[in-house]
Amino acid sequence: MKIIVCVKEVPDTAIALKIKGDSPEIETENIPWVINPYDEYAMEEALRLKEKFGGDITVITFGQKRAENILRNCIALGADRVLRINDESIKNRDGLVTSKILAKVIKDIGYDIILCGKESVDYGYAQTGQMIAEFLQISCVLAIKKLDVSPLNKEAICHREIEGGLEVVKCNLPAVFTAQKGLNTPRYASLSGIMKAKKTKIETLEPDAWGFKPKIRITNLSYPPKRQEGKIIKGTLPDTAEELVKNLKEARLI
Amino acid sequence: MSGKEIWVIAEYGEEGIKKSAWEAVSAVRLLSENLKTEPAAVILGNGIGRFAEELSKELNRVYFFEHPLLSKYNANTYVRCLYYLIKEKNPAIILAAATFRGKDYIPRLSARLDCGLISDCIGFEADNGVSFKRYVYGGRLIATVKFEESEPCIITIRPRSFAYKKTGTVNGEILRIVPNIEQQDIMVTIQEIIKETGKRSDLSEADVIVSGGRGMKGAENFKLLEELADVLGGAVGASRAVVDAGWLPHTFQIGQTGRVVSPMLYIACGISGAPQHLAGMSTSKCIVAINKDPNAPIFKIADYGIVDDLFKVVPVLIEEIKKSKKN
Ligand SMILES: Cc1cc2nc3c(=O)[nH]c(=O)nc-3n(C[C@H](O)[C@H](O)[C@H](O)COP(=O)(O)OP(=O)(O)OC[C@H]3O[C@@H](n4cnc5c(N)ncnc54)[C@H](O)[C@@H]3O)c2cc1C
Ligand SMILES: Nc1ncnc2c1ncn2[C@@H]1O[C@H](COP(=O)(O)O)[C@@H](O)[C@H]1O
Predict the structure, then answer these.
(1) How many Cβ pairs within 8 Å bridge chains A and B?
(2) Span B120-125, mean pLDDT?
């Protein structure tokens, strides 16, 4: 089974971010970078599929040299091959360009199952897996919380999250699955894995001549309006609860 | 762009056209006023003529795809139908709500068309060429985004970002289309829908959300929050700490790696207010925090706070609300 995992590095989710001058970019110096949290579930699911059915795992990122860190971590976890598509030569990109480039590389490698995160927590497009599936003309199931693959029948049954519940869906393979939290519990890398990862040379690809053009452009970044710090209702029960209800009622919220 | 249409693709469920779809209808109306284009709707299904009629009271034109294979939602058939109509009619903008369904077929549609997609928009500005606003970095920043050359431009809007009002005043035409689709177009089939806990769990459309954190101490105590949610006619949500402890399933989680919600009223009980939690609820209209720690960060963004033991406050609050409803 040929398994592909797409991973992306993102700024740590807990830190405050600064906008660089009046550019539409953030200050990236000295901030901690992590693997997109949903991609960890995608990676773990890939490892489980390999343990069950055999095959090999290729992990791909389209990003800067710094993103080699998350690829090394994937080797430490058990990926067979990692690949960085260098984005430094591509000045303009949007989610559509990213998906086209990933789809092209994945097509050349070959695939049975492609795993992505359901959303990247930086730009939050929530589209890459679906677009890759459309470019490759294969199935895509979003935000999965359970995956049962049957390689013999070339199909999979999964649970995906929808508003107010779960959908059980059947799809043909090959397919793209995007991972939702709850799919699995990611493991930690072993010491021997970490040693091995240190020594691995990371393959890179240069896509600068592919000529894909972005269709959207971020023109500005701003901080969201600060919420006014509200008031603490002083006193003791039941006065505090009564006062709260009075306020909410005046604001027509109840 | 002038002269061309702006489309909204309307989503519906068993209970009718979704609230989020009506919001999208309003967004399309607003956009069409600003851009001097004609608003129209698209709806796909089988035996849903009454929904097409409802839409025709709000917009000039309704394209109504009807086919037995459309009786169940499927991304492949949706993309196929929409692709051909778009190629024929050349709309300037296509808009849908960023629901699970919208997130499923819309990116596929934009890939098929090779068009730009701006997902999860919360607003737009129409001066100096139209631009769209969306949250990035888990709500820590807002991006302004523009289309480069893209025909059409595709947008999804975050539920509850646009107010909606039905006018019922338009008398639009309905164009029924029987598409050429086949069973073999369908790659993914829905076998079953498991409703998690009935009506209490559709967080994205709830006006009131009562949310519990680690301070709830255990799964059994969520009965208390359900009771509070019931008197307010709201839904129950949770922080990740609650979900990680196994007290509630993940569908209840609010935050960066859970649902993003924006109700009129959000009541946080025993939630500290970590940045990843705030990412999912800080656009709520009114936030109430009940926490026994006066230094909990949640108070920094709450409109009203009560510093006290939630197990004492919530029961009294329930009684006070009941009392106030009687008056
Ligand atoms: C990558 C990543 C993604 C994340 N995504 C999310 C997410 O989507 N959603 C999310 O919520 N978190 C998320 N988190 C976790 C987040 O960082 C916090 O750990 C989490 O939100 C804490 O939940 P809590 O507020 O319920 O618990 P705590 O931080 O432990 O707070 C409990 C609060 O309850 C109060 N309390 C205790 N007892 C009582 C009582 N009797 N009466 C009143 N108050 C009481 C305490 O004073 C305290 O403030 C994420 C973390 C990471 C690293
Ligand atoms: N630059 C990238 N390189 C590799 N994978 C990516 C990249 N961008 C997005 N992805 C994948 O697509 C998922 C969804 O991202 P997005 O569509 O940007 O929200 C991520 O969780 C990754 O699995």
Answers:
(1) 276
(2) 95
CA A190 to ligand 2 center in whole angstroms: 26
Nearest residue of chain A to residue B148 (CA atoms): A215
Contact check, Cβ <8 Å, A164/B196: yes
**What would the 3-class secondary structure string for B1-54 be?**
CCCCEEEEECCEECCEECHHHHHHHHHHHHHHHHHCCEEEEEEEECCCHHHHHH
CA-CA distance, B228 to A61, in Å (whole number)? Answer: 46
- Among B122, B118, B196, residue whose Cα is nearest residue B163: B122
Average pLDDT, rounded, for chain B:
93
pLDDT tens digit sequence for A51-105: 999 999 999 999 999 999 999 999 999 999 999 999 987 777 899 999 999 999 9
ipTM over 0.95: no
Instruction: Report the alpha-carbon distance of residue A6 to residue A102 in Å, rounded.
Output: 8
Domain count within chain A = 1
pTM: 0.92
Any chain A CB within 8 A of the CB of B179?
Answer: no
Tokens encoding A147? 């995956």
Asked whether residue A221 is assigned to any structural domain, the reply reads no
Q: Which domain holds residue A180?
A: 2-205
Walk me through the domains of chain B, giving residue ranges and CATH numbers. 5-185 (3.40.50.620), 208-326 (3.40.50.1220)
Cβ-Cβ contacts under 8 Å, A148 against chain B: none
Question: Using a 6 Å cutoff on CB, does residue A41 contact ligand 2?
Answer: no
Is residue A91 less than 8 Å (CB to CB) from chain B? no
Say if A253 falls within a structural domain. no
Convert the pLDDT of each residue in B153-179 to its tens digit. Answer: 999 999 989 998 888 899 999 999 999
For tokens 């006193």, name the residue.
A235
Our mutation pick for probing the ligand 1 site, out of B211, B261, B277, counting the most ligand atoms within 8 A of Cβ, is: B277
Q: Do A241 and B232 touch (CB under 8 A)?
A: no
Among residues A163, A13, A118, the alpha carbon closest in space to that of B205 is found at A163
Q: Is the CB of A180 under 6 A from ligand 2?
A: no
Asked if residue A239 belongs to a domain, the reply is: no
Q: What is the CATH number of the domain that holds A124?
A: 3.40.50.620
| b/e per residue B95-105 (b: at least 16 CB within 10 A) | bbbbbbbbbbb
Per the omega criterion (within 30 degrees of 0), is the bond before A186 cis?
no
Would residue A214 count as lying in a domain? no
Task: Report the run of H or E that residue B118 belongs to, with start and end.
Answer: strand B117-125
Q: What is the distance in angstroms between the Cα of B289 and the nearest Cα belonging to chain A?
A: 9
Instruction: Note the ligand closest to the C-alpha atom of A205.
Output: 2
